[in-house]
Amino acid sequence: xxxxxxxxxxxLVAWLFLYICFCYWNKHRSHEWSCRLVTLLHGVIxxxxxxxxxxxxxxxxxTHAGSPNTSLQIHxxxxxxGYFIFDLxxxxxxxxxxxxxxxHHTLSICGMIMVLGLxxxxxxxxxxxxxxxxxxxxxxxxxFLREMGRYHTFLGEVVDFFFxxxxxxxxxxxxxxxxxxxxxxxxPSWLLKAGGLAMYIVSLGFMVEIFRFVKRKMLKKYHSWTxxxxxxxxxxxxxxxxx
Length: 243
What we know:
Blueprint: H1 2-25, H2 31-57, H3 71-94, H4 99-118, H5 122-133, H6 136-147, H7 154-184, H8 190-231, E1 235-236, E2 239-240
Helix pairs in contact: 1-2, 1-3, 2-3, 2-5, 2-6, 3-4, 3-5, 4-8, 5-7, 6-7, 7-8
């Protein structure tokens, strides 16, 4: 357990040091710019690592929920736990996030601490990290595009499309299978099951926000197309109609 605490501490220090470096290299940018660079990097790294653990290294989370932690699972969770502690501290200090995101971070931290302490159930928690973090790089890319004035472009449309698609298919759809396997298995702790269900409810809350975003975006496009059609001059045989 001491080695795990040391590993988590090193992870926290590493993410904090990286953030300080980004702030130094991007003095003309905001603190949020540097923090989101850290978040983007974490999202890419943890997506690859947790995906490998869940899909290749195993054991399979849908059939082995509650199984003993492997060394690779412990390393991945320690790396992620250090990041979440850093990010929660940053969000509380700068007060940039709402209650839903803060609750999500708190649940994530408590869940990973519990799994690392119990020595089991890292299989399903790593799988949850994979389906959750796979959309994070797209979310951060969307923010950077907006900051650079390139969001309302074809690239911005592609990023939004794949973000919504992956969120619904993996985080909501895949997350439902993981939660079902966790709840139905007799091995995971009941407290971990309750925390997993709470995490899934938070994901549903994020889904509601995404649906609202998609609705606003579609209505905006509809009104834009309608106004374009109304304001466009009518033509008859290639000639403008007389007024």
